[in-house]
C-alpha cells in the first residue's frame, strides 16, 4: 500500500493557498464596501452643505449627484462580481478540503491496518519464542 502522506501534504498546501486567495477576496470586498460607504457619507455631507448654501448652488449639485450615483452603481456591480467569485472560491475550497479528508481517512485506515498487522506479527513471534523456550525446558526436564 502506498503511503499517502506526501499527497496529504500537497493537498494541505493547496488548501492553504486557496484560503489565502479567499481571504484576499474578502479583503477586496470589504475595501469596496468601505469605498461605497465613504461615497454615501460624502454625498450626504455635500447635500447638507448645498442645502445650507441656498437654491442657486443646486444647479451644480445635479451633475455631482449623477456622478456619485454612477460611481455607487459601479461599486455595487464590482461587489456583486466579487461576491460571485467568493462563492466559487468557497466551493472550490470546500471540495478540496473534502478530497483531503477522504485521503486522510484512507491513510488512517491503512495506518490502523499496518499497526494491526505488526501487532499480529509481534504476537506470533512472541508465541514462537515462548513455545521454543517451553520446548527447551521440556527437553531439559527429561
List the helices and strands and how they pair.
Layout: H1 5-53, H2 58-141
Helix pairs in contact: 1-2
**What fold name goes in the CATH topology slot?**
Helix Hairpins
Number of domains: 1
For the record, the CATH architecture stands as: Orthogonal Bundle
Beta-strand segment tally: 0
In short:
It contains 2 helices and no strands. It is mostly helical and 142 residues long. The model has no long low-confidence stretch (mean pLDDT 92).
Kindly describe this structure.
The radius of gyration is 35 Å and the shape is rod-shaped. The longest helix is centred in the C-terminal third of the chain and has 84 residues. It is mostly helical and 142 residues long. It is 94% helix and 0% strand. The protein has one domain: Helix Hairpins (Orthogonal Bundle), CATH 1.10.287. The two termini are 49 Å apart. It contains two helices and no strands.
Amino acid at each position: 500500500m502506498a503511503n499517502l502522506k506526501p499527497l496529504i501534504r500537497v493537498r494541505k498546501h493547496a488548501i492553504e493557498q486557496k484560503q489565502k486567495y479567499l481571504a484576499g477576496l474578502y479583503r477586496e470586498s470589504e475595501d469596496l464596501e468601505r469605498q461605497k460607504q465613504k461615497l454615501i457619507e460624502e454625498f450626504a455631507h455635500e447635500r447638507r452643505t448645498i442645502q445650507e448654501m441656498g437654491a442657486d448652488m443646486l444647479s451644480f449639485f445635479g451633475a455631482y449627484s449623477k456622478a456619485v450615483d454612477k460611481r455607487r452603481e459601479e461599486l455595487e456591480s464590482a461587489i456583486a462580481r466579487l461576491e460571485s467569485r467568493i462563492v466559487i472560491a468557497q466551493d472550490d475550497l470546500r471540495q478540496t478540503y473534502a478530497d483531503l479528508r477522504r485521503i486522510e481517512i484512507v491513510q488512517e485506515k491503512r495506518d490502523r491496518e499496518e499497526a494491526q498487522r505488526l501487532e499480529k506479527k509481534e504476537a506470533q513471534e512472541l508465541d514462537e519464542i515462548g513455545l521454543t523456550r517451553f520446548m527447551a525446558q521440556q527437553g531439559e526436564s527429561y
